[in-house]
Design goal:
This protein is of the alpha/beta class and about 280 residues long. Helices cover about 35% and strands about 20% of the residues. Strand 3, helix 3 (about 70-80) and strand 4 form a beta-alpha-beta unit. The structure holds adenosine monophosphate (AMP).
């Protein structure tokens, strides 16, 4: 497993890789969710590249950039047994040198949900992912369903910019009690960690209502809100029942839909979602 930092080394190593190349972009502090993407990439590709970069441009001014957890040594220890070919750890200075002024923006699909709550977030995501794509030039790139809107936005960007890259979206990996794995879970105190299970319980309750025949989207949102309100430590930012592709809120569920939410548990903002299949 080679570890490179500079763009120049990255380009040199990329030329040595056997195609198809699979790419897993991450912000590090790796957990089983990330590793599941790497394993999938290993199964499907001849070479695998993982990037670790806490991308400053996708964090809002009031967000957790400064305290986002980082531990490169630990990350490399977790990746080594998976036989990753190349780990790229770019620097902020090289990705965004002084005078940097080029941005990639995706329109409609970035507007609702996370885009509405985190202005500028997806502009940061699409810009860094396209810069990473340009350097890594993978045949396939792997993303988690955990960040459902991010996956939709990247799919749209890849289509719109004609990247010859297949976007593979992998299922959300959860803790035994249902909490979706996230690097941010380390922010939770033991009491908050317990309370954080309410997100998945709320999603499951709405999913069960759907399976029992409920198709009214507002009633499905109400089911989620009701479960979330039963947890005193939870502060709901949004709950959504939206069209899977456009992410527009639905009145009635007819095709594939996304139940999603953003909830503060104490000061920690968590997101989660479940897909409703028709
Ligand atoms: P991050 O390091 O949080 O930017 O995540 C890097 C990639 O891992 C993204 O494509 C995420 O959607 C994915 N990911 C994060 N958490 C999970 C999870 N619990 N299950 C599956 N994929 C995940």
């Amino acid at each position: 497993m080679k570890v490179v930092t500079s763009l120049q080394e990255m380009f040199a190593e990329r030329r040595m890789l056997t195609e198809p190349v699979g790419f897993v972009p991450t912000m590090g502090y790796l957990h089983e969710g990330h590793l599941s993407l790497v394993r999938r990439a290993k199964q499907e590709c001849r070479s695998v590249v993982v990037s670790i970069f806490v991308n400053p441009t996708q964090f809002g001014p009031q967000e957790d950039l400064a305290r986002y957890p980082r531990d490169l040594e630990r990350d490399l220890r977790l990746l080594a047994p998976l036989e990753v070919d190349l780990v790229w750890t770019p620097t902020v200075d090289e990705m965004y040198p002084p005078g940097y002024q080029t941005w990639v923006t995706v329109e409609e699909v970035t507007r609702p949900l996370e885009g509405a709550m985190r202005p500028g977030h997806f502009r940061g995501v699409t810009t860094i992912v396209s810069k990473l794509f340009n350097a890594v030039q993978p045949q396939r790139a792997y993303f988690g369903q955990k960040d459902a809107q991010q996956a939709a936005v990247i799919r749209q960007m890849t289509r719109d910019l004609n990247y010859p890259i297949e976007i593979v979206v992998c299922p959300t990996v959860r803790e035994a009690d249902g909490l979706a794995m996230s690097s941010r879970n380390v922010y939770l105190s033991p009491t908050e960690r317990q309370a954080a299970t309410v997100l998945y319980r709320a999603l499951r309750a709405a999913e069960q209502a759907y399976q029992a025949g409920e198709r009214n989207a507002e009633r499905l949102r109400a089911v989620m809100r009701q479960v979330l309100e039963s947890e005193p430590l939870a502060r709901v930012q949004y709950v959504s029942c939206a069209d899977f592709d456009t992410l527009q809120e639905l009145d009635e569920v007819r095709g594939k839909a996304l139940l999603s939410m953003a909830v503060f548990i104490g000061n920690t903002r968590l997101i989660d979602n479940i897909v409703l299949e028709p």
